[in-house]
Design goal:
The complex is a heterodimer of chains A (about 260) and B (about 240). Helix content of chain A is about 85%, strand content about 0%. With about 260 residues, chain A is mainly alpha-helical. The chains are: A mainly alpha (about 260), B alpha/beta (about 240).
Chain lengths: ~260, ~240
Amino acid sequence: MENSSKTISDSVLRKFFLEVYSISAFTLRFFKEVLKPPYELNELLKQSFLVGYKSLPLIAITGFIIGLVLTIQSRPTLAKFGAESWLPAMVAVSIIREIGPVITALIFAGKVGSGIGAELASMKVTEQIDAMQVSDTNPFKYLVVTRVLSATLMLPLLVIFADALGLCGSYIGINIKGDVSAYLYFSQVFQSLEFNDVIPAIIKTVFFGFAIGIIGSYKGYNSNKGTEGVGKAANTSVVFASLMVFIIDMIAVQIASLLQN
Amino acid sequence: MKKDTSNKVRLGIFISLGILLLIAGIYFIGERQQLFRDTFRLSGVFKDVAGLQVGNNVRLSGVNVGTVDNITIISDSSVNVEIMIEENVRRFIKKDAIASIGSEGLMGNKALIINAGVGGKQQIENGDSMATSPPIDMDDILLSLKTTMENSSNITNYLSSITKNIESGKGTIGKLLMDESVANNFNSTIANLQEASSGFRLLMKEAKISFDKNIDSTFVSLKEGSEGFKILMEKAQSSWLLWGF
């Protein structure tokens, strides 16, 4: 009994480290391929359009609602201390530093990560990837590099849009129960923000996008269980990508606070 | 092909707008930190900066005109604070300006406050060191508040014992307020006074009547006397003995 449980734990650990190895090798291959010509610029633009532009409505609505709700929910607590005038500063710092990047990345992981995973997995199942190899096209370069790059480049842009719309939502939230001019609101917002808030927040979204792209691509590219594998690849892509977003966020906060000190 | 081009245009618009928003954000934040304005630098040496931090506002006449740029400890009892101020307010700051450290609000950040100095003096130069005044420390305020609270606590204790004594009828005021015999005595005194005043009124009435009578008789006597005197004078005038007077 003891031996069998030991074997199980051994195999779980073995599986885990194997997964870590293969995802690291996959990432390394990405860096090798990204620098080597030829560059699939057209495919990169197409993927950027699908990943970035097509995600904008979803991200915009979410960002706006987050700003609005955060403001409405925070108001009573600040009102207790008579500090309602601090609402723009508080909401701005929360949105720019944390909520905007993380919520956008999670939605991005749900929409784009699962999309990449499912698409590549179905291509793998239907042997389209093999067909590309046969026809002398590098499938890794054409499929993986373009998707990971577009996810890495588009997420920061989407976060900027989400932040901007979140601040607009917050302005409306403040004016539901108060009367603050747009000029005063935005001057209070920019008064409270510093480069230390904005720059690390934007930089970490690059890593969020990269992690979402690479995990989605890895899960899809290495799927091998038929049609069942497509669903599994989509599912595990979202779960792992979301988890990675939080892990990267935690590391980014530590690094940012270390650099600020 | 046409759809592909339109998608590229949309992507171009999306990327341009995103970058534009980022640049606008950076510009507005930089504007606050005077990155895109003409600034000049001043410094001041404080004994204690009371929690002032790099990036805190610098205020002149209640207006934010700059930020704290650098804080360095130069010895065990002195801290050098460097500030960046907008060039266009330099003409209002004189050589005898004094820097002090205040608060932006009860819970707010610290701020460096510049007292501009008196008119007539030369305006301050880039890199000048300002005179400083020590900050009002919250701990000092709390300490003085504590003494005040202790004093007021003693006062209320005394007041409490005084009111207890009054309530139990001790002391002059206690007897005055709480002893019924005092009130009774006071009532009888008032009654006596009332009686006395009515007696006095009667007396005065009688006195007035007798005075009136006496006055009348006096006037009658005077009248008679003056008439007799008048007759006497007339007789005297007609007498030869007083001829010539």
